[in-house]
Specification:
Metallo-beta-lactamase, Chain A; binds fe (iii) ion; six-stranded mixed sheet; 9 helices; single chain
Length: 256
């Protein structure tokens, strides 16, 4: 495993962005830029430059700092191929299956349409980490602003298929409200009960509940569990196509 550092930065109300830093090569990347000033302050405090901006999707709270940071650091801006015309400062398009080489760190692009059609996630096998923007949250997923349930379900599967131990870095701290929703759907899920307790304790201390892991989400995230018979039965949708079950869960969450 590559010895690089990942720093998760709280920004705005409930956003996170992440810095990746490889000290040996002195390479630094940021995933999304909710707040240029927070990111600059952190870079300065650590004595790091900025080499790359990776963009998950075109919503303003993920791209707001792009222009200011590019101006200051002359970094390369990478973002989803489908939205390259609306994301400011894009130098390179990221498409499904692309491998980005950031110094020694290689990052694979995974298209995850649903929240937006162009949304991509960035997976680094060497860092055992995936940066999922607003596709996946702990025990939740992004609202379907542009995509269809079938697409988002496929995106859930793409992330669920990553190695269990992969750390999952999400774009927002929505975990506590997601946990309550998930508990209402699967009150007997023991891993979920445990996760809820942990999350409540963390939030009482105002600590982040993220990153989560692929294994933990597979066990507790209802949106990743639309093909699990127990959950299907709970919803009265036994044997239905998972995308349909997913759509029902998403609809209930939207109305919660
Ligand atoms: Zn978004
Ligand atoms: Fe967002």
């Amino acid at each position: 495993m590559l010895n690089a550092e990942i720093v998760q930065l709280p920004c705005l109300q409930d956003n996170y962005c992440c810095l990746i830093h490889d000290a040996e090569n002195n390479i630094t990347a940021v995933i999304d830029t909710p707040d240029a000033r927070v990111i600059e302050a952190e870079l300065e405090a650590r004595g790091w430059q900025l080499d790359y901006i990776l963009t998950t999707h075109h919503h303003w709270d993920h791209i707001d700092g792009h222009v200011a940071l590019k101006q200051r650091y002359n970094c390369e801006v990478i973002g989803p191929v489908l939205n390259q015309d609306v994301i400011p400062g894009i130098d390179r398009a990221a498409d499904d299956g692309d491998v980005l080489q950031l110094g020694r760190i290689s990052v694979q692009v995974i298209a995850t349409p649903g929240h937006t059609l162009g949304h991509v996630c960035y997976w680094s096998p060497e860092l055992q980490a995936v940066f999922v923007g607003d596709t996946l949250f702990s025990m939740g997923c992004g609202r379907l602003f542009e995509g269809a349930p079938e697409q988002m379900w496929q995106s859930m599967l793409a992330l669920r298929n990553l190695p269990d131990e992969t750390a999952v870095y999400c774009g927002h701290e929505y975990t506590l409200s997601n946990a309550r929703f998930a508990m209402a759907l699967e009150p007997d899920n023991q891993q979920l009960q445990q996760r809820c307790q942990t999350v409540e304790q963390l939030r009482e201390q105002r600590l982040p509940t993220l990153p989560t892991s692929v294994l933990q989400e597979r066990q507790t995230n209802p949106f990743m569990r639309a093909d699990v018979p127990g959950l299907q039965a709970q919803l009265g949708l036994s044997g239905r196509p998972p995308a349909e079950v997913f759509a029902e869960i998403r609809q209930r969450k939207d109305q919660a």
